[in-house]
Amino acid sequence: MTRVPLSILDLAPVSAGMTRAEALAASRQLAITADCGGYQRYWMAEHHSSETFLSSATSLLLGHLAEHTSRIRLGAGGVMLPNHAPLMVAEYYGTLATLYGDRFDLGLGRAPGTGPATARALRRGGAELRDFAADVSELAQYLGHARGDEDAAAAQARYVNPALDRVRAIPGDDTRVPLWMLGSSTGGAQVAAALGLPFSFASHFAPAQMRDAIEIYRRYFNADAPTAQVPAPYVMAGVNVLVAPSDEEAAFLYTSAIQLQAAIRTGRLGPIQPPVHDLNDVLDPRLTNLLTQSRSIAAVGSPATVVSYLEDFVADYDLDELITATYTFDPALRIRSYEMLDEAWQS
């Protein structure tokens, strides 16, 4: 069976007893490990005002990782565009591309990545589909995206916003940082299709609409859109992964991730907690049952168990790429999980 590319999604998680500097150092070490292996991309997702995740200043972290890696593609998975002016996003990521070359992806989402109070503090703009699509188009214009053999002038003429003619994202213009659309619903799929962008579906935390979203994306994909990045639909999907030498050890270590899911559901976010032998000792049994039953997009087990799950998942949805998220209390075991997965997937 042909293996699709594997990528990594990192939110710079903090474990209990760990300093924030140690957590960021752990993400740096994971990126170095991924760079030395066979992973395609290393993406970081924007979150704000979180005691669990430190990936708020995503572009700064990606620049730091670029200094410590040489091969792997780095990217935002993603930038929550309504939180930012498109011009500033083009400047930030255009600067990264100018400094480090064609190594960056710019995944775009419309969720807040935080709670309502923090969203207000960010002076968040409109996130309706029409507003969001307009912001993506504006961002693409700033980055100088052209299709085929068009020169910059011809590409500029394809856009319908002449008011931006005198506004330039320096040094972002003409860097053409690749754009991706992120989504966890059919709405994101519609925007990705209309704009001709590759689509990354957040099935690792919101799998309910995955099949419908992918179908809509493929059916209505517009390769002739001015913003088009790929000639045909391209789908990447998220999956939670934890690999250990045995199924039993992996299941034990994964209880930290289940506790994290419980914290997210109840709004009691905090550092990642140690694994436990019995989740009923730390969680309400009703919540424990709900979380263990909802593990539909999670590959947890030995290398053979995880590879078999991922192969079936890829075949079921005809995926072009997988992006994996792994949470462990001990960051060394997260690195071990990714090393074991890489070796098994490449064999």
From TrEMBL:
Give the residue range of the signal peptide. Answer: none
Q: Which residues are in the Luciferase-like domain? A: 7-314
Question: What cellular-component terms does GO give this entry?
Answer: cytosol
InterPro entries per the UniProt record, alphabetical: Bact_Lucif_Oxidored, CmoO-like, Luciferase-like_dom, Luciferase-like_sf
What GO terms are given for molecular function? Answer: oxidoreductase activity, acting on paired donors, with incorporation or reduction of molecular oxygen
Which family is annotated? To bacterial alkanal monooxygenase alpha and beta chains.
What name has this protein been given in UniProt?
A: Luciferase family oxidoreductase, group 1
- According to its UniProt entry, this protein's organism is Bowdeniella nasicola
